[in-house]
Structures are given as C-alpha cells and as structure tokens.
Amino acid sequence: MLSPGWANVKADEACTLLRWMAARGYRRAFHVPTKKVSWRTRDGKTIYKEVRVGKEDQGTSGLELMNLPLEPQVADWLEVVRKRRGRAKSLACRAVVEFGSRKTETCSIEVTAWPAAAVIDKAKSLGKKLVRIQLTKNIKNGRPRAIDFDVEFAHIVRVWIDGPRNELAAIYAKRHGTEPTQLFLSDAKGHEGTPISAHALYECFKLKWDGGPAIWYPHLARHYSICLGILKGLQRDAATLDRLPNDMPLEWVQRRTSYWVDIQRRRSGHVSAQTTEIYTQWIENNLVLIPAHKDYMAFLEGDEHADA
C-alpha cells in the first residue's frame, strides 16, 4: 500500500498526463471529478480549493513538507528578520535553520555552549566545514545531542558574542543585577539583553513580504533543515563519483537517502518512521520526479518546434 501522500502525487501525475493527452487529441476526453474543500490556516483564515475526488487525506504535515521554501527564500527571510526585528533575532532564527532545533531548544542555548574562537579558528585553518555544539537545555525526551554545523555561521555568532552580546548582557545586568546565561539576547530598544523567548522567535517566522514562503513556522524550518542536510549529503556522495544526484539511478538515491536520513535522525533527536517516508518522498520528488517532468516538457516543446 502506498502512503496517502505518495498515492496522491502519483494519481495527480497520471491525471495531468491523461488530460494533456486528451487536449492534444491522443485520446478521448478525460474528466477529473473535483469537489470544493476548505480548511483553516494557523492564522485563522479559511481557505477554499477544488481538489480531485478520491484524493486521500494525508494531513497537513506531508503537504507542507512537500512545499518547503527554497534556499533563496530562506535567505531573504533572514534578512527581513534582521531589518525588522534586529540582528539578534535573525541569528536565533538562523540557528533554528542550521541546527534543525526546536524553538524552545534554540532559545535555551547557553552562551558557554558555543564553540570558542580558538576552536573555530583551528577548524577553519584545517579546512573543516563543520564544528560541533552540544544541546543540553530543554531538550525533548531529556536526551542531549551533538550537532555539527557550518563553521562560518559559528564564526559569525562568535564575533557577535564577543562584541554586541557582551554589551547587551552588561545592560541587562545593570538593570536586573544579574547577567543572563542564554546565548541569544534581544537588542530591541528598551529590552536590551533580555533573553529571546520562544514566542518572540515564533513571531519572526510569521513576518510577511513579497516573495516569501506561503507557509513558514519554526517546526517547518526544522523539516527544512533536515531535508537540506539530506540533499547536501547526496550531493557530496554524487560528487565523489563526478556526478550530480539528478543523474544517479533512483535506487542509488533511495539507498543513500536512507543513510542520510539516519544521520539526520540522530542529529535532530527524533524522526518518526512516517516523517522519514515524507523526507524520502521530498528527496525523490526534487531529484527524480521534478527533473524528469522538466525533461519531458522540454522534449514535448522540442517536438512542437520541430513540427513548426
């Protein structure tokens, strides 16, 4: 049995192809019965949409995960956060994306947990791309975990720690008589040095701007981080063979995806079997189905041009 999410994808592809063939005169008309459905978004709005009759209910997580934002969109979002909410919140938001951490875990990171400047400099001098951090506070299931993350991001935050954060902590200590231990401190006027809360972090994900992702919130950023980690792992694997993941057989993609999903499971603390299946679908969709569809459409367009 196919999962609802995977069955929907395959059925929709088949319907699209049959309708296209009918429109081109290759077969009789193909009618896809539809019905109107509605659902409420996280901000309370009601959305209406025509969907294919017989489409399986797959919940929202699978649908949202299959429509993750692109890297440029995430980069734009982080810049929007910096401009509207300040440098500190932008760094905290990027930490969610870099670590695949939950918002409470991210806000609970203590400044002493961040890699020291000497550790970061040594890693860079040796040509290493990653450094390690231990997440120990407010961890789900109470199991601390180690996360390897981008050394350049580690350097950016270390510079911020040794400069602006020290100043923010001093302002807070003067106001409250004690220094905050949390890494990410607010730089908002009147709240300097106040530890950034999970609610404040969540609000940064709800900022809207032209070209931004339609669906975006901290836990989806966690999915995004994991999928991106799997994808980059596949890219490195294929590069060792002087190939691109898109050029590799589906069986190879599935086998290496399983390996990288296991790596991400340990990194993220918990990935259920159901979510693992969705990650696999996302990778296959991006590396196999989408490129194949584009090649197919390019072939059809080439035929049309040739006939002309």
Please give a structural write-up.
There is one protein chain. The chain is mainly alpha-helical and 308 residues long. The protein is built from 11 helices and 4 strands. The protein has helices spanning 4-23, 61-65, 71-85, 87-99, 103-107, 117-125, 151-176, 198-205, 218-239, 250-268, 273-307; strands at 34-40, 46-52, 130-135, 145-150. The protein has a two-stranded antiparallel ribbon. It has a two-stranded antiparallel sheet with strand order 3-4. Helix 4 (87-99) crosses helix 9 (218-239). The longest helix has 35 residues, at 273-307. The chain starts with a helix and ends with a helix. 26% of the residues are buried. Residues 59-63 and 303-308 have low confidence and may be disordered.
- The helix-and-strand class reads mainly alpha
Report the strand count: 4
How does the major sheet shape up? 2 strands, antiparallel
Shape: globular
- Percent of residues in beta strands: 5-15%
For the largest sheet, list the strands in their spatial order: 1-2
Tell me the number of helical segments per DSSP (H or I, 4 or more residues long).
Answer: 11
Mean of residue pLDDT values: 83
